[in-house]
Amino acid sequence: MHPRLIDIPVHRDSRGALAVVENILSIERAYFLFDIQAGAARGGHAHKALTQLLLVPSGSYSVIIRDDMGGTDTFTMSDPSKGLLVPPGYWREIFGFSSGGVCFVLASHSYDEDDYIRNFEDYVEWKSSH
Ligand code: TYD
User: For 124, which of 31, 46, 93, 118 is 20 to 30 Å away at the CA?
Assistant: First the structure.
């Protein structure tokens, strides 16, 4: 499975909207990026085993997904009813945060630094053996 946008069901009525993430991935951890400085980039790594769902409850940001074959996909996240599902084994960079932009991440596993590959050349080498 490649990284892809998925629909997040929204219950909207006269009071506003409520979005539900259910039965998309098994979740052990959630974290969010906020107060991100204009021009700052986050991410810049791949995960060996972690699946993540990136959400945008507020504002906007962009994500570049890279694979080891030189493939690149860019997603502009600005719709709270869309999530970017990123399976293990893809390089990601998160950038272009709007003022007030929030990247909310649901993750399949607890934080584990050993699951990170933080150098792109190491990522390509790791992919060649997986
Ligand atoms: P970092 O990996 O640099 O964030 P990003 O992927 O957004 O560029 O993480 C920043 C710090 O937060 C680093 O010290 C590790 C820590 N951290 C945790 O302790 N738990 C977590 O779940 C995450 C994602 C990061």
Answer: 31
